[in-house]
Design goal:
The protein is built from 15 helices and 14 strands. It has helices spanning about 60-70, 105-115, 125-135, 155-160, 165-170, 180-195, 250-255, 260-270, 275, 285-295, 295-320, 330-335, 340-345, 355-360, 385-395; strands at about 1-10, 15-20, 25-30, 40-45, 50-55, 85-90, 105, 145, 205-210, 215-220, 220-225, 325-330, 365-370, 375-380. The longest helix has 24 residues, at about 295-320. The radius of gyration is 21 Å and the shape is globular. Bound molecules: adenosine-5'-diphosphate (ADP). Belongs to the acetokinase family.
């Protein structure tokens, strides 16, 4: 079956068409600046040239219409007609406590996702708009919703509760949810597969280090803790998000800088993280690595602090699981930054970790980067959230 995977943001939409039998990506692309002046679609068929077209996209329905037009284009398209697309898989950011699994989308599901809008006001409404636009243009194609939070719903109460008045949990469902669940699930399973060991017997820590970053603890095939919280702001230092801070800093800054809560939240989400910590050198680890090699003090501080926080979470999750068998690095930074992996693993001597430096320099493959015989195995597993969504969709649609 050919599955269209859609990841819809407020002004952008990423898509991939995946053949579920060969698990090959047939075409992929991105619509940008939806509803804004200068919108454009980028489309790349497998093995073909990338094409970029600037064209008006007043709304998401028009964006999806252009995606479907590109996929069926007689010259560069990869399907003859839309009938060849058997199902659509939508990434949905927040499923609250309602969704511990992916689901087939129907009216009831749409209403339940809408109820989670409060928990993810930037993401869920955009996801819903994308789903509605798709349903309008492909009314008879089955669609699945795959939630970023679902994999983490197995966390025990002691991991997901905050030390806040219990009434806030009862009234507003304030608790840890966690995100990147599709990636944590895919990578942890894949690690077990590559090692040829039963998933249900392993204690795995996944470090998803991209622009957004999170760590999760997966014990016997179930997530038992993760670093993102009610929102993706908690946990590791990220590209531009602060991660964990003393909550009193918010009030302190409000007074000192004369800022509103909204303005401070913008600082914490958009101006902090490695961007802020490096005194605006960059949010991109390629620049930070270059800076580190030049001896730039902003880059050195940032690389060291970022890595220290990752190592601290690994320590915490080793304690949470009473041990760890496998530690996986994934996503843009986790897959491509050997220096970060080196810095993090320098803290893991107590787990018997010793890196194989040659393996650690490789890219783009599932690989063990510890020397043979280490008590704890460290791996790099490239994530593939789109493939995971396509698999889930096929499982549900049958
Ligand atoms: P997201 O999906 O959260 O936007 P990604 O997982 O694509 O993020 O990761 C993007 C980040 O990966 C970039 O901001 C950059 O810091 C990092 N990255 C990508 N390629 C490299 C590389 N070759 N070396 C170091 N870091 C890289």
């Amino acid at each position: 079956m050919k599955v269209l995977v859609i990841n819809c943001g407020s002004s952008s939409l990423k898509f991939q068409l995946i053949d579920s039998e060969s698990e090959q990506c047939l075409a992929k692309g991105l619509c940008e600046r939806i509803g804004i002046e200068g919108s454009m679609i980028t489309y790349t068929p497998d093995g073909g040239e990338k094409e970029k077209t600037v064209t008006p996209m007043p709304d998401h329905t028009e964006a999806i219409r252009l995606v479907l037009e590109a996929l069926t284009n007689p010259k560069t398209g990869v399907v003859r007609s839309l009938d060849e697309i058997g199902a659509v898989g939508h990434r949905v950011v927040h499923g609250g406590e309602k969704f511990a699994q992916s689901v087939i989308i129907d009216e009831e599901v749409m209403a339940a996702v809408e109820e989670c809008n409060d928990l993810a006001p930037l993401h869920n409404p955009a996801n819903l708009i994308g789903i509605n636009a798709c349903r309008k243009l492909m009314p008879s194609t089955p669609m699945a919703g795959v939630f970023d939070t679902a994999f983490h719903q197995t966390m025990p109460e002691e991991a997901y509760m905050y030390g806040l008045p219990y009434a806030y949990y009862q009234k507003y469902k304030i608790r840890r949810y966690g995100f990147h669940g599709t990636s944590h699930s895919y990578v942890s399973r894949r690690a077990a597969e590559v090692l040829g060991k039963p998933y249900e017997d392993l204690k795995i820590i996944v470090c998803h280090l991209g622009n957004g970053a999170s760590v999760s603890a997966v014990k016997n095939g179930k997530c038992v803790d993760t670093s993102m919280g009610l929102t993706p702001l908690e946990g590791l230092i990220m590209g531009t998000r602060s991660g964990d801070i003393d909550p009193a800093i918010i009030e302190f800054l409000a007074h000192k800088e004369g800022k509103s809560i909204d303005e401070i939240m913008t600082v914490l989400n958009k101006k902090s993280g490695v961007l802020g910590l490096s005194d605006n050198l960059s949010s991109d680890f390629r620049d930070l690595e270059d800076g580190y090699h030049r001896g730039d003090e902003n880059a050195v501080r940032t690389m060291k602090t970022f890595s220290y926080h990752v190592a601290k979470y690994i320590g915490a999750y080793t304690a949470a699981m009473n041990g760890v068998d496998v530690i996986c690095f994934t996503a843009g930074v986790g897959e491509n930054a050997p220096l970060v992996r080196n810095f993090v693993c320098e803290y893991l001597g107590y787990l018997g970790v010793e890196l194989d430096q040659e393996a650690n320099r490789k890219r783009g493959e599932d690989i063990v980067i510890t020397v043979p015989g280490c008590r704890t195995t460290v791996m790099v597993i490239p994530t593939n959230e789109e493939l995971a969504i396509a698999r889930e969709t096929v499982r549900l649609v049958g």
